[in-house]
User: What shape does this take?
Amino acid sequence: MKLTQFLLAGAVVLAASGAMAYDLDHPFWGPSKGQFASDTTYSFERTNWREGAWNAYEHTVAEEVLYGITNDWTVYLDLEKDWMKENFNAPHNTGNWWAVGTTYNVINNGQLFAQIGVEYGQNKYKYTDVNKFYSFSAKGGVKLDKVTPYAEVEWSNTLNNGKDNDPTTDLRVAAYTELTKKIGLDTGLKYGHEVSNPVVKGAYTLDAALSYSINKNMSVRIFGDYLLYEKTKRDFIRVERDYTVGAGLKVAF
Assistant: This one.
């Protein structure tokens, strides 16, 4: 089960914000004009399908490089390497991902935030063909003292064999809390809807990231997510349990 960009995530797609430059892990932070940023993460994901028929685990190392064209316009490059094993009897599978994208702040005055984004990328696993994908995203929030509640939506699709298929919509509601001047906590609930004929899936996932600012240009964090419930029209492939844990380092320069 692949999580996009948290991909939560991890990790979150960033947008430019001079007002938030002191806090690298704020969901609406991004590099200022002419500034670069690097976000390096490692994550481990474990998946169990219904009745334990299928099991899988996946190690992922990812690097995101961002550049601020203006204080409100950011471009980025994502690179990712996956090591995955299914059923624990099958051979290991490896995958390579890359994506390029851009985000733009429609509103960012330090109090109100609104952002749009677009992305295109490809991935290739050892035993599969090249998979091309694209996505559109939007998110908005409001800063209330030390808490910033926000919501984001992403619609993505694949371009296999020149045809659109496997459309996915992710809707996430979250809040970023400044626990101290150096510690931040981002928590969210995501609903993902995927159509992959003949399978239609709907899943609810809880996620969290705890960050620590070493200085104004460097932070570290730990993050994770846990599948609360998944519903599918083909019950025998329903995921019973899925969780991800990871750590990241973010640097602006």
About this structure: The domain at 18-252 is CATH 2.40.160.40 (Porin). The two ends are 34 Å apart (CA to CA). The longest strand covers residues 199-215. Residues 62 and 80 are 4 Å apart (CA to CA).
